[in-house]
Amino acid sequence: MSTVTESVDVHVPVHTAYDQWTQFESFPQFMSGVESIQQLDDRHTHWVTKVAGVRREFDAEITEQHPDERIAWKSTDGDTQHAGVVTFHRLGDTDTRVTVQLDWQPQGVVEKAGSAVGADSMQVKADTKRFKEFIEQRGQSTGAWRGDVPRPGA
């Protein structure tokens, strides 16, 4: 299992950063390698990715979500095994720290080699930087979902 953690400070209020992150179908606008995401319902998404020439499709489930605080997910089936969490920390009225932690299982020689040399970390760092540019240029989110999903067993 490979773990990647990356943080970025964005110059928007915490609710704006959080609201944008709930708009999964917009991810291809700032995440390279993400071809499409289809929101199936409040807790389920279908992803199509292509990274280093490797195309993957998988479904993911939101396992925990609390407005302006965190969104956690895990893959449920498909071509990849991963789980992650993104947290939102209010730094001030107009500044937020967004931290992404992703755990994933590299498959095949290319993915294992890429993970070993830090390609996955570089990818997440570049994606968080593009998120920063995307949300700061807009100044507002493209939409919002403010529902709460309690963690399993809570």
A few lines on this structure:
The relative contact order is 0.27.
Biggest sheet overview: 7 strands, antiparallel
Helix count from the secondary structure assignment: 3
How large, in whole angstroms, is the Cα Rg?
A: 15 Å
* Helix/strand order, N-terminal first: EHEEEEEEHH
The overall pLDDT, averaged over residues, is 89
Principal-axes geometry comes out as globular
Approximate strand percentage: 35-45%
What would the keywords be for this entry?
154 residues, alpha+beta, 7-stranded antiparallel beta sheet, 24% helix
Structure, described:
The chain has 154 residues and is α+β, with helices and mostly antiparallel strands. It has helices spanning 14-21, 108-116, 119-138; strands at 2-10, 34-39, 44-51, 54-66, 70-78, 82-92, 95-104. The two termini are 26 Å apart. The longest helix has 20 residues, at 119-138. The model has no long low-confidence stretch (mean pLDDT 89). 24% of the residues lie in helices and 43% in strands. The chain has a seven-stranded antiparallel sheet, covered by helices on one side. The protein is globular.
